[in-house]
User: Which sequence fits this backbone?
């Protein structure tokens, strides 16, 4: 029979493991003695690698924070910093609420509990919700416009065909052929604007097989001066997806990246697992993150908020349909595509859940 103390310990561990809050525990020497999975994800390293690391090493660029932590430990007084910038060992900077609480018992050395509530996550969730709302509104508008366009377009094409049958002059038939051809082109464009109209045929899929298929296709098309670099996490389990639809979505993004770098440049395909991720309105225990990173000139700031709208493109020969179609395909898999960009670094991120739908 399991003792009540053991049950309490197991329950406490489960709670800590499933918290979105980053929890760090430092001993009296301000060396890390415990961190939960959310902290491992934030610091991009495992507990085994980080345990015993000094606070000064973790926050090498935060001398003021280290001093504040030491004062709290010495005085026994807790404090909270709101929306403070934290420079991580990876070089990334986040904005977070930081609560520091000294913990002590009679006759025991004092420990320091640090809780980080990243504000970036709240902003990301809000951005994702805006993306989903934007995409749904756009699809509703496009469907309405498509219906209004298709009916007169069909009549126009039919009238041109009837007129062609009445004409005996081949030169005049060239004009009706142009009308029919342009009507067909517009019909195809409208169909592409509507995006995929079939539900995914889901099966177990290895995300790296999808990426390798895309890499092989794009490598054959890319200029010799473009490097496509792989940075894969081989431990990622299979997800349930339609492989053809995922290939199409990733292909659209990678082709955009290759076109962005021009004759010379680098495109990185990177995969990572993510824990306790919220995609849109849905929380998932485990997910996969696929980053397509290029070192091209970047997406103009004024276009960044609109790139998932149909017909928005920065290229003279572009249709502006690749990104909306990719977004639709990924959303059908309960995922989402995000974009961040600055000169020299553009990142398109695909977020997908790794659990089966019925487990959500």
Assistant:
């Amino acid at each position: 029979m399991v003792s009540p103390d053991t049950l309490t310990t197991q329950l406490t561990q489960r709670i800590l493991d499933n918290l979105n809050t980053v929890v760090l525990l430092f001993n009296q020497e301000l060396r890390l003695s415990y961190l939960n999975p959310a902290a491992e994800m934030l610091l991009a390293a495992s507990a085994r690698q980080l345990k015993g690391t000094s606070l000064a090493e973790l926050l090498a660029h935060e001398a003021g924070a280290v001093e504040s932590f030491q004062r709290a430990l010495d005085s026994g007084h807790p404090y909270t910093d709101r929306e403070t910038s934290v420079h991580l060992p990876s070089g990334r900077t986040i904005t977070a609420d930081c609560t520091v609480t000294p913990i002590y018992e009679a006759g025991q050395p004092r420990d320091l509990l640090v809780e980080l509530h990243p504000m970036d996550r709240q902003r990301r969730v809000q951005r994702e919700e805006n993306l989903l709302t934007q995409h749904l509104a756009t699809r509703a508008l496009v469907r309405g416009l498509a219906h209004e366009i298709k009916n007169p377009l069909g009549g126009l094409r039919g009238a041109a065909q009837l007129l062609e049958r009445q004409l005996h002059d081949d030169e005049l038939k060239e004009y009706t052929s142009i009308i029919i051809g342009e009507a067909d082109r517009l019909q195809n464009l409208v169909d592409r604007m509507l995006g995929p109209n079939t539900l995914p045929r889901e099966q177990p899929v290895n995300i790296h097989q999808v990426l390798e298929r895309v890499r092989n296709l794009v490598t054959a098309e890319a200029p010799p001066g473009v490097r496509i670099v792989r940075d894969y996490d081989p431990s990622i389990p299979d997800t349930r997806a339609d492989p053809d639809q995922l290939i199409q979505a990733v292909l659209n993004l990678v082709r955009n990246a290759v076109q962005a770098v021009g004759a010379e440049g680098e495109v990185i395909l990177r995969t990572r697992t993510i824990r306790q991720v919220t995609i849109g309105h849905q929380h998932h225990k485990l997910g996969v993150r696929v980053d397509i990173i290029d070192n091209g000139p970047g997406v103009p700031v004024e276009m960044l908020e609109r790139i998932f709208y149909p017909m928005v493109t920065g290229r003279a020969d572009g249709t502006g349909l690749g990104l909306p179609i990719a977004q639709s395909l990924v959303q059908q898999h309960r995922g989402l595509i995000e974009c961040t960009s600055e000169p020299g670094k553009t990142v398109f991120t695909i977020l997908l859940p790794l659990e089966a739908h019925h487990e959500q």
